[in-house]
Write a structure and sequence with these properties.
The complex is a heterotrimer of chains A (342), B (178) and C (455). With 342 residues, chain A is α+β, with helices and mostly antiparallel strands. Helix content of chain A is 20%, strand content 17%. In chain A, strands 2-1-5-3-4 form a 5-stranded mixed β-sheet, with helices on both faces. Chain A has a 4-stranded antiparallel β-sheet with strand order 12-11-10-13. A two-stranded antiparallel ribbon of chain A has the order 6-9. Chain B has 2 domains: 13-78, Arc Repressor Mutant, subunit A (Orthogonal Bundle), CATH 1.10.10; 90-169, Glutaredoxin (3-Layer(aba) Sandwich), CATH 3.40.30. Chain B is built from 7 helices and 4 strands; from the N terminus they run ααααβααβββα. The chains are: A alpha+beta (342), B alpha+beta (178), C alpha/beta (455). Chain C: It is an enzyme of class 7 (translocase).
């Protein structure tokens, strides 16, 4: 079947979705995907980030589709023509979805362990705005403890439901799910049960945001200060192929190996992920490569950026210094010039 | 929502009559689709247990239908008719969507709340009455109205509300049609 | 006096019971269909009738039936959508409560046409007493041999059951209804695949509204051609209208499509005019999801033609000056109504009922409600009106199911037709402090305050 995406033609098998076809082409035409995960059955269609415009339905029925369609769940037809990055409508829709995803998001990237490898960060970097139109109070959830290995931070969740599918498809007893509905829907176990299953740790890897993070790595390091290596060990439960995230000689975190679309290549077990933190547990293969513009590559392989000197007039700097003093010590009267705020 | 299990306790009693009714409901679906009976079964179980469902009771339903407890929690929390904590014996559910609002349901709710000495969403200390506002109940032409148990009480005014409260106190109101 | 098809026998005493219903010609369509017609002939009659889905979307019922996958050989199902939750609509409840056997008769005939052997009526949980009425009626029908194995000796088997929801508007969407029937959360499915191919338990399924199915017996008995003679153009037959709001005679009415809105509203046979003879301000003609119409566009379209109760006439002018027939929830507002408050009320409804599955609807409906609530309570900002417009346009069309559209249309129409009222709320917050602010001082009296000269 022939499909054209942003003017680039490709031949694919019947049953391929538009998103998969776009991923085969690669480059900037690949729609962002927050909820779709090729390795989880039934994922996709929910986040609406991957909307594309179908300008020609197929050779047999060339009428364009009136609405934007979710590329991750729409199969290609022979002769279909799709606009992704070339369409202003699509760009507008992606901006809207990004805005919607961010209005209730806590924007706590500076203290979030996912920062640096977060799909929502990347999405907002590409499609977001620096200001907000949302002046209402943000929605928040009660914290919930879901066990010693996994940290749930519901306020950051975008309800992609990947973790629910992962628990359904990888483990034999799902204990967490989506409860409540509407904008108060949340991921929860209801009774603060520990999620305890040999493959439960994979929910961390499938989570596109910082809602599910590794408790054993919590606040240890920013991901871009770690150096990732491919490593493997003989594991009787899983493939044993992982990425270990090192800081000096210390293994701070173990994850599955993720491809360019941030999907894991093979799921790994909890023993590999949480318990094997000694270098002697692993056979290190070599550094893991990341795409050129990934945050993780910053400060490592790139040239040092030229130092920029900001030239400011002297009296402005003096004024700023005075302001700083006042602001940081509001309660303390300035004795020197008698111009105190109190 | 999460820790409520430890606050409220409920006596679980699946009587033979209730079990018979559950089995009747189960017979409406193919053998291998027991989960489909979840909503009707939850209604029956809730009606037989003071109109609310504790997590223990939800676990029991999961056991009967041979599904995972989380599948029951997910469903119970999605649908508004299932109560997850104890409520008054008579729950006054006022419809407050547009048509009822235009016909003065808001004033009537205030009146009822004042009369019972509670705020919307609260239960009286004697455990008799709860007043809540709900979304459209499909009785727009007979507004303002409220639901008590399985039944609708329509074209309300202050006198009718007074009468209903008196009837509830006298035990004259039927909650469920069994 | 219009023709009655559904409510023809509603006044016969005891029509609720099987005996009276049968004595008055009930179940004749089952006899006719099963004994004299093939399933395809029944479908063909329904196609000829031009019957359009009465749940709101108006999709031709016969066409929908013809999409069902009969080739795969998997079991097929008919599911009746009685999850009537659209604010302003209460017609299905009336039908099921007072003449339950009509729906059951329709279910049997329709199931036969589709070749379904296991069918369900999905009723909303709040209608629990109607659930019980239907349950009893189904038992009567089983006892009389209209359901079960080998009906009327024709070899056709049908099991019919009633299933109840538990309080979720979204379960009126057909795929969410199917999910709910499977005992899951009412999250709409992503289409395609459509229910006609993969529906209930992944089997081919047709979901139809109560009123559509209740019309089938008449069509089978009197032919589709006869049905198509009623009405105008592509709006054939009769329609149940649920009338509510500020009118003299609220209730359920059966009208022939093509009746003028003027006659429907003002004649004594129908609504009997405005309550307390106050001036008419606005009309929602088809349930809360459809755009609201201002007084000047109710009886006449933008071109000055009479507005009729048909699918086409009500949507004449598109969303700019028209609306939709929708599910027939006819809500009338007089001059004491605050449109901002009413729009907030609708937005609260959609916020409350959003399933939370897809981003624009989950986040957007809540945002709309919060802004409208602020404006209504005197904390609005001038830029909020533009913001509302922008948010609704970003929700519309970008969601999985039509709830997103339904949440945005009322807001868009309110701003389009009643923008001055929003401006009034923003600029005179002290005047809108009480919720009945238009009761003593209708907007017409203060309209001059927001004239175009004030910026």
């Amino acid at each position: 079947m022939k499909v054209t995406i942003d003017g680039q033609e490709i031949h694919v098998e019947p049953g391929t979705t538009i998103l998969q076809a776009a991923r085969m082409i690669g480059g900037e035409s690949v729609p962002p995907a927050m909820c779709y995960y090729s390795k989880l059955q039934g994922s996709g269609g929910k986040c609406r980030c991957c909307l594309v415009e179908v300008t020609k339905g197929s050779d047999a029925n060339p009428t364009p589709m009136p609405k934007l369609v979710a590329s991750c769940v729409t199969g290609v037809m022979d002769g279909m023509e799709v606009n992704s990055k070339n369409s202003a409508r699509v760009e507008e829709a992606r901006k809207s979805v990004t805005e919607f995803l961010l209005i209730n998001h806590p924007l706590d990237c500076p203290i979030c362990d996912q920062a640096g490898e977060c799909d929502l960060q990347n999405l907002s970097f590409q499609h977001g705005k620096s200001e907000t139109r949302f002046i209402e109070e943000k929605r928040t959830f009660e914290p919930e403890d879901i066990g010693p290995n996994i940290q749930l931070h519901m306020n950051r969740c975008i309800l992609c439901q990947r973790c629910v599918l992962a628990a359904d498809q990888l483990t034999d007893g799902r204990v967490h799910g989506v409860i409540s509905r509407g904008d108060h829907a949340q991921i929860s176990t209801c009774l603060s049960k520990a999620i305890d299953n040999e493959f439960s740790g994979n929910v961390i890897d499938v989570c596109p945001v910082g809602a599910l993070t590794d408790k054993t790595f919590r606040f240890k390091s920013r991901v871009w200060f770690n150096k990732p290596y491919n490593a493997h060990r003989n594991c009787d439960k899983c493939c044993g192929k992982t990425t270990v995230w090192m800081f000096g000689d210390e293994i701070q975190r173990v994850t599955a190996r993720k491809d360019e679309f941030h999907e894991v290549e093979e799921f790994i077990c909890n023993t590999c992920r949480f318990e094997k933190k000694d270098v002697s547990d692993w056979v290190i293969e070599g550094p893991r490569r990341f795409e050129k513009f990934s945050v993780i590559n910053r400060n490592k392989y790139a040239l040092h950026p030229p130092k920029v000197e900001i030239r400011t007039e002297k009296h402005i700097l003096e004024g700023r210094e005075q302001d700083q003093k006042r602001i940081s010590m509001v309660e303390v009267p300035e004795k020197t010039n008698g111009n105190s705020n109190s | 929502m999460i820790m409520e299990k430890y606050i409220y306790k409920q006596d679980i009693n699946i009587t033979p009559e209730l079990m018979a009714r559950i089995n009747e409901l189960l017979s409406h679906y193919p053998e291998d689709k027991k989960k489909s009976a979840l909503l009707p079964v939850l209604h029956e179980v809730q009606d037989a247990h003071d109109n609310w469902l504790s997590y223990e009771l939800q676990d029991k339903v999961a056991e009967i239908l041979e599904i995972k407890p989380i599948e029951v929690y997910e469903v119970v929390s999605f649908y508004t008719m299932f109560n997850q904590k104890p409520i008054g014996k008579y729950m006054f559910e006022f419809c407050r969507t547009s048509c009822c609002a235009t016909r003065g349901v808001e004033d009537l709710m205030d009146y009822t709340c004042n009369k019972l000495g509670i705020k919307e969403g609260e239960t009286t200390v004697d455990g008799m009455f709860t007043v809540v506002g709900v979304e459209c109940l499909g009785a727009c032409g007979y507004a303002p109205m409220m639901q008590i148990g399985d039944f609708y009480h329509e074209n309300l005014n202050q006198e009718k509300v007074d009468q209903l409260i008196a009837d509830c106190r006298a035990g004259k109101i039927t909650l469920h049609d069994k | 006096m219009g023709r009655k098809i559904l409510l023809d026998k509603i006044n016969i005493p005891g029509i609720k019971t099987y005996e009276v219903y049968r004595q008055n010609g009930g179940y004749a369509s089952v006899e006719k269909a099963l004994k004299q017609m093939t399933p395809d002939e029944v479908t063909e009659e329904v196609k000829t009738s031009g019957l359009r889905g009465r749940g709101g979307a108006g999709f031709p019922t016969g066409l929908k039936w013809s999409f069902i996958d009969k080739k795969s050989g998997r079991p097929r199902h008919l599911v009746c959508n009685a999850d009537e939750s659209e604010p302003g609509t209460f017609k299905d409840r009336y039908l099921m409560e007072y003449i339950p056997h009509l729906l059951i008769e329709g279910m049997i005939t329709s199931s036969y046409a589709l070749g379904a052997n296991l069918s369900y009526i999905y009723i909303r949980g709040e209608y629990m007493w109607v659930f019980k009425i239907l349950e009893r009626a189904i038992k009567e029908a089983y006892a009389a041999g209209w359901l079960g194995k080998n009906i009327l000796g024709t070899g056709y088997d049908l099991d019919l059951h009633v299933h109840c929801g538990a309080g979720a508007y979204i379960c009126g969407e057909e795929t969410a209804l199917i999910e709910s029937l499977e005992g899951k959360r009412g999250n709409p499915r992503i289409k395609p695949p459509f229910p006609a191919v993969n529906g209930l338990w992944q089997n081919p399924t047709v979901v139809n509204n109560v009123e559509s199915i209740a019309t089938v017996p008449w069509i089978v008995l009197n032919s589709g051609e006869e049905y198509a003679k009623i009405g105008i153009g592509r709006s054939t037959g009769t329609k149940l209208i649920s009338a509510s709001g500020h009118i003299k005679n609220p209730g359920v009415y059966e009208i022939e499509l093509g009746l003028s809105v003027d006659e429907f509203m003002n004649s004594d046979e129908y609504l009997g005019g405005m309550l307390n003879d106050r001036p008419l301000k606005a009309l929602v003609p088809g349930g809360s999801s459809v755009p609201i119409l201002p007084a000047n566009l109710i009886f006449k379209t933008a071109n000055g033609e009479d507005r009729l109760m048909t699918y086409e006439s009500l949507s004449d002018g598109g969303f700019a000056t028209g609306s939709m027939l929708g599910s027939g929830g006819f809500i009338v507002y007089n001059d004491t109504t605050c449109i901002v408050r009413n729009t907030w009320n609708f937005s609260r409804f959609y916020h409350h009922e959003s399933c939370g599955q897809c981003t624009p609807c989950r986040e957007g409906t809540g945002w709309l409600e919060k802004i409208l609530h602020r404006i209504e309570n005197g904390h609005g900002r001038e830029e909020d009106i533009e913001l509302l417009w922008s948010i609704q346009s970003k929700i519309e069309g970008n969601t999985i199911c039509p709830l997103g559209d339904a949440a945005s249309w009322p807001v868009a129409a309110a701003i389009r037709h009643f923008r001055e009222e929003f401006e009034y709320h923003v600029r005179f917050p002290e005047k809108v402090k009480n919720r009945d602010h238009f009761v003593h001082e209708p907007f017409e009296k203060v309209r001059h305050l927001v004239g175009k000269t004030i910026v």
